[in-house]
Amino acid sequence: MASDAAISQTVFFIAAIVVAASLAGVIIGVGFQMGEKIEDQADALGDSIATDIVIINDPTMMPYSDGELTIYVENIGTSVMGTYDVMVMLDGVYNNETAARLDGSSSKEWGPSTILVLTVGADIDEGDHTIKVITGSGRSDTFLFRV
């Protein structure tokens, strides 16, 4: 009789160890996945923080002549951006007639504290307007001006 109780206790003990080991494996796996996800989100947030722009035009004296609007955008972030993936929206409408060049440079790399000059082809009437510049990383700046 005593051996029957010892055998059943041993079986329950082994079963408890197997269940505990299984649960520990699942918890460690879930924790590892959560850690990777948090790291990915932190990297994306770090890239977003390192990338920022500001439109530095004078809103009362916007350079506009012969159907071309000139916009000066400064990279105030700490990362280098490309000049090829900048989008411009004028009064809420995407403008595909935009030429980009770096002020004083022939490079295509838009570094920190560098000014990007955007020439936008647009026929706009006198009055108040809105311009929005969006980078490839999703950072943007909106600017209200008067022509």
CATH architecture grouping of the largest domain = Sandwich
Number of domains: 2
Euclidean distance between termini CA atoms: 100 Å
Q: Give the biggest sheet.
A: 5 strands, antiparallel
CATH topology of the largest domain: Immunoglobulin-like
Number of strands: 11
Kindly describe this structure.
The chain is an alpha+beta fold. It has 2 domains: 1-50; 53-146, Immunoglobulin-like. 33% of the residues lie in helices and 34% in strands. It contains 1 helix and 11 strands. Strands 1, 2, 3, 7 and 9 form a 5-stranded antiparallel β-sheet that branches. A hairpin with a 2-residue loop joins β2 (64-65) and β3 (68-75). The longest helix is centred in the N-terminal third of the chain and has 49 residues, at 2-50. It is rod-shaped. The model has no long low-confidence stretch (mean pLDDT 86).
Give the structure's gist in a few sentences.
The chain is α+β, with helices and mostly antiparallel strands and 147 residues long.
